[in-house]
Amino acid sequence: MKILIINGANLNLLGVRQPEIYGTKSFEEYLGALRARYSEHIIDYYQSNIEGELVDKLQRADGAYDGVVLNAGGYTHTSVVLRDAVAAISTPVVEVHISSILAREEFRHVSMIAPVARGTVMGFGMESYRLAVEYLLG
């Protein structure tokens, strides 16, 4: 199976940014362990702070991947275009959040993406990504 993980704005700072919320491990460190755990599958990774680049990557993923794990970061709460991109592709997308967005500031409680995603995993730290991968692997 071929899975694409897409991380949005500011997630390149994992391990440094707000470690009390996001932990001290970089995503690249976690990704190595995730790939080792699922070595029989291809897990590609993409990160951008630019909304349009995330849309482009989602559109290119359609048909090229069996599933997408998407952590849109702050765009989760604001991006109609990311929502539309997820809705427009046939490849299943699982929305992921490291923290529980429902336990944070009120403006984070609403996800633009959740209604068009296959499902949402949140609040389990970096393990949220593994849980999403598990779902996609079926």
Structural description of this entry:
A five-stranded parallel β-sheet has the order 2-1-3-4-5, sandwiched between helices. Strand 3 (67-71), helix 4 and strand 4 form a beta-alpha-beta unit. The model has no long low-confidence stretch (mean pLDDT 94). It is globular, with a radius of gyration of 14 Å. It has helices at residues 19-22, 27-37, 51-61, 80-88, 127-137; strands at residues 2-7, 42-47, 67-71, 93-97, 119-122. It has 138 residues and is an alpha/beta fold. The termini are close together. The chain has a single domain (2-137), classed as Dehydroquinase, class II (Rossmann fold), CATH 3.40.50.9100.
What attributes characterize this protein structure?
globular, Rossmann fold, alpha/beta, 138 residues
Distance between the termini: 10 Å
Largest sheet: 5 strands, parallel
Question: Average pLDDT value?
Answer: 94
Radius of gyration: 14 Å
Q: What can be said about this structure in brief?
A:
The protein is of the alpha/beta class and 138 residues long. The chain has helices at residues 19-22, 27-37, 51-61, 80-88, 127-137, and strands at residues 2-7, 42-47, 67-71, 93-97, 119-122.
Write the layout of secondary structure elements.
Layout: E1 2-7, H1 19-22, H2 27-37, E2 42-47, H3 51-61, E3 67-71, H4 80-88, E4 93-97, E5 119-122, H5 127-137
Parallel strand pairs: 1-2, 1-3, 3-4, 4-5
Helix pairs in contact: 3-4
